[in-house]
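Researcher: We're teaching a course module on how sequence relates to structure. For the next exercise, students receive a sequence and then see the predicted structure as tokens, so they can try to spot secondary structure elements on their own. Here is the exercise chain.
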Amino acid sequence: MSRLSDAFARTRAEGRAALVTFVTGGDPTPADMGPILDALVAGGADVIELGMPFTDPMADGPAIQRANLRALGAGTTTADLLAIAAAFRERHPSVPLVLMGYANPMVRRGPEWFAAEAARAGVDGVICVDIPPEQDGALGPALRSAGVAPIRLATPTTDAARLPVVLEGASGFLYYVSVAGITGMQQAGQASIEAAVARFKAATDLPVAVGFGVRGPEQAEAIGRVADGVVVGSAIVDLIGEHGAAAAGLVREFTATLSAALRRAAQEKAA
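Model: And here is the predicted structure for the students to work with:
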């Protein structure tokens, strides 16, 4: 089993949703990433998404846009991100790490190069926001060949006709983008999330994780009652934006509140 499947199997056995946390790589600087990633693990994150900073992050709201600018302003490169990932893997051999970003940094040197380097750094999965599955003839196969999971996105507009295309070749987990918009700016209704998760779970054995618009423990707890995973990003990125290199302690505390909320949701389901 892979680290991703192990993590979701463990949280499923505990009767709870996995906590998936996102931060932008190199924010505030590449040198500051180690303590921030360690804080996520210490706070109870089950899976970590490391964002690849990009000049045109079209799916991201203001918080992550600013994080991209901070990271790029600090000179963060793809080589830095791979080094951050490799160092994380040495410190945390069993915690899944996923790279999330946009096509240009992933394919500019060739998808095979990127897939091989990601695998060498101990990356478990890759989410590429702007390559639709219908056009994924290069990156997805390269990742699969390297043993890295191509993680696909589904949205509120992913209908029954398109869902099989999204799921074909996907692995790791299915990431449900719960709003038809950008990160961190709006919240989907709980009823729509429950209906979408039920629809996806009927179509795939992959875990279904819900993200975009999840900013606090209360939302995480509600979504954790129905989803296999809950993704939180912008609220953590805001802490880093406000406190910079001193954010690690606050990140750990906030992550712990999210983890506790998912455990509460599990207790309520079991009661």
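Model: If you want an answer key for the exercise: The two ends are 31 Å apart (CA to CA). Residues 239 and 247 are 6 Å apart (CA to CA).
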